[in-house]
């Protein structure tokens, strides 16, 4: 395997004829930023602190930068700002206020052409062969040298083959963390208990008599067991069970649509967000499948770069969905570096599993 | 106006040659139902309690029935079951276990034909003229004699005309409650502050310089004001402001996608669900616009009937979305009585406002 | 391989307490049917001719039945009716006018359950694993014992892998005929000449300089060669070339969107229709990929049954498209027996090729 | 009304330091262009003929330029090239081969901002209020000072209100020509005869018994009448009838999907194309509704400019469709100047009719 993540081009600050230290204002109350606060993008942003340009070791779009010490800049959600936090201010990105945004940091000659291509819309008619081939390379590389987070919509477990394909990938070591909702976990375990999802057989498509009880029965059983982990001691199939067996961490975020919920599902959506970000901080590759809510949430929390063992490299983000609208929406919300593939996730997973 | 809600046909239990009292089992722990629990549908369901058939005065799909007294059956979510609750058991619906589901309770000769029509798929090519005309009648009737709840996706405030149309409807008295998320409220108030949504002018489509700060600035200002109500004292336009001025209750449910959030947004999604259900318990008409998450959540909580001043009548549910998939999904999740309209909600609101 | 096409259940006319001969009226002019003409469905329909029930050996929805002799009933398009044709009249299907429609002729115990399932909507979230497995069986069986017609949208040749997959299937013998448009042929041969489709590389997605000339240059070259066959003598890749090499017949129907067109493309759309029907008359399996126009056209011309070596068997129809709307539309236009798969045809073809 | 079409900015050839006459090569055979032919874009293109820059008075994308005389350059489809035609060659657009493409000819300061905005994707969530307001202005202006061509998909006549709205617009003078297919005409006249489209009532949605015969009966009647015009002498409602009454020309292009067809429908799709182009040559405004086939065909034939009474002005093109994919596809096929509106055409027509 020859694949290497794109090399990071350090900015050459000697060419930047500016040396102005970034300004901050202390927050007057918890949860409120000073006027003119600076908000982060998905790109690497350097802050000039007393003449030295500091790159925060983690970032998140639409958050503020808080100066903890001369070397440490923390990236903080509005709700997590504390009184007296030193919030960096300024809304330019060219260094003139001590803030420098470094957008084209992974662009080489080859990818410049790609950038041109990206200006065209990506649709169901885009040729995805090469995107698949590159994804296989990224997954193989990051299995050994990175951290692969999967964001899963419930459709993944609605089909026999795709559910099995994902279990295979867990077993082969391609899954370092899972972000999903109550429905994914519920219907995956319903598939174990009854071979159904929402009462319909995930292979034969037959409807089980009284099958609309199936997910409720499953939820009630897991609640009785006390925890997902406890319940999984007595089952053998499915994605949730494979996560438990292989110590793959998962975050199941609650939503207003939930029945139950299963024990372990986050009721507080901002605590869920924090738990998701804990996974995404480590991520070198994020693959999102057929869920607009969790994908945009994850996209918002994922910067275009990460620092792994002192080396800055890209985070590769993929979004697989059957509609152009959903895919474009992630870009329209700021996640410009995503690679979208327009297809059914069932086929996507079957193919990926066979090729890695 | 001649419109009257469909008349309720009481079941004739004298024709039912069964008189078996419904059985219950006491819950052994909080949040866990006994085996063989009965789960509710969207339809009226009668329980035979010592020979008398009792209709719960409220219902909710996928919840359990708890016998509080001989006359009072409460419909309870799994997470709200308490130890020792008398949970009714049985999974038949024909009276043979003391449970009788009364599905065709609003069907008359005319609507029988409609029912046949409904078996065909509804698509962008369905003729919606009559559905609009009926909706106008329902809204006019329920403005005086009912409770109209609107479920709003953010697209409603992304356009100048549709945002204004909805404000008009609040002022004319057609809005009794609003269910939405942090984004709807944020971008509506961003529209007041900057005339933009996510930085783009909601009329001219121009991009405001540094406009990606707009929603963050708005959120920060409302957080500084301490509450939506306090902030609205100093603004004049928009849906949130009109709600505050006209005492229209709203529920803004948080989600993992949120920036901020605004003060007053529910962080706990199950408490948000409870607050939504409090609105939906009163609803005689529910109109859902361009939000899959909030619509399916609301659909799950809305039965096909309500009892208003002692009279049982239908709850009219509409779902307006631009994709057939979203509309069908609500039906596939059990909300069979919904009327779907496949269009852009901008045009929908402009038209409805002009015709009522 | 154990797969056998569903067995045909002959109608038992002895149980039908009717013996009325079908009536006809002679057409007064070319192209015009008599009043009360009978129009065909997709199902087998028997006509009582002097006491004997005759099944036409071919059929087509929305056409009329013309009595040629006591044993031969021809199914004719309106535009092909000739003066004095004996057009059968009557609009009942229960035998009372000598016309008997035999809808459930392939239903066995197992498929009765399937029929129930089919009443639910099929969407991107339907479990397609078993449909794939059955399709593999049908293709393997009909490769030896049937006639497999493929209906192709241009997206098939927009991607490197799917274009190659289809060429493989031609070479393996799974393709007996192709129905498509000028665009499919043009961009397939553009892929041979320049490795592009509409100027974009079908593997790398790079845009070739002045690539918008590519399809025009290709068309001009084929026109200069005089025919597709002549042009293919000097090329080596692609679907059109594989058809020519392997003597697979194709019909390329012209449309108002065409540049060129290529030589051999039908300018007259009704002559194209006749040529398509000639292929579809022989078909035992029809697989339609990502083209609404050609799929609905083909669906309209394909009955649910065919008679092969004296045996009546089903025609298996598949429609693969990325939108539910397109798939449903085929059903809404009368092709009730189709199996729809909602996915990107690129992945569909890659998968099918690997599994047969 | 203050609306004026964007003013044309003549290119300043004095600033272009080039004076090279365009080269041509005579075609050696009918229908075949010489190598290195120049293909037209949607924009104004000037050809240097012996030192003078000539703008063809009509254009069409993907066609060749044929020099008829020193002052007259004809724009010709490949299939219409004749032997000895002087086909201009060269594939640069900066004047260096005597060909100058003038893309930004209608751009003023204001619209430069618009251009920036246009680079973002247009979706269901785009604010369309201003696009509607501008469309009303264009229609009012061009009713008196232009030529408005409508391209109609069958969905327009599937709904009672939208069908009536379009008839109103014909009567008010907003329709100068119609381009559509056999289905639009058939179902419109079916709506007159039976109040149905494909057997379903266009207002009540009820299914008429044996309604699948309705369109066939209508077709048969019109064929019997001999022509659409003759048939319309005895009917009173609908779009086709209004066209006949008000002498609005129509082109009904045949397709492989057609039943019938109606008399007057073009069987030869390239003759249909020629007839469509005859309408589009005159067009100052083109509004396309819910038909991908006819819209892309029309878009391909419509340049971004027209010369009306010696004045060069834009052709305003609108495409209204419920999917982003269809709208984007028109742009991906080269029609960059189109304004897309993502909505249901039923609502679009009802709104437009009420506002003009």
List keywords for this structure.
three-stranded antiparallel β-sheet; six-stranded parallel β-sheet; alpha/beta; 19% strand; 356 residues; homotetramer; 34% helix; 17 strands; globular
Radius of gyration of chain A: 22 Å
Oligomer: homotetramer
The main sheet of chain A orders its strands as 12-9-8-13-16-17
Q: What is the N-to-C succession of helices and strands of chain A?
A: EEEEEEEHHEHEHEEHHHEHEHEEEHEH
| Tally of strands of chain A | 17
- Return residue spans of chain A where pLDDT drops below 50 for at least 5 consecutive residues: 109-119
Broad structural category of chain A:
alpha/beta
Count up the helices of chain A. 11
Helical amount among residues of chain A, as a percent range? Answer: 25-40%
Question: Gist?
Answer:
The structure is a homotetramer of 356-residue chains. With 356 residues, chain A is of the alpha/beta class.
Tell me what the structure shows.
Four copies of one chain form a homotetramer. The first copy, chain A, has 356 residues and is an alpha/beta fold. Chain A has helices at residues 109-118, 129-145, 160-172, 182-194, 214-225, 228-232, 239-245, 269-282, 292-301, 324-332, 345-355; strands at 24-26, 45-49, 52-54, 64-67, 73-76, 86-88, 99-101, 148-152, 177-181, 196-197, 200-201, 250-253, 285-289, 305-308, 311-314, 316-321, 339-342. In chain A, α3 packs parallel to α11, α4 packs across α5 (214-225) and α9 packs parallel to α10 (324-332). Chains in contact: A-B, A-C, A-D, B-C, B-D, C-D. At the A-B interface, α5, α8 and α9 of A face α5, α8 and α9 of B.
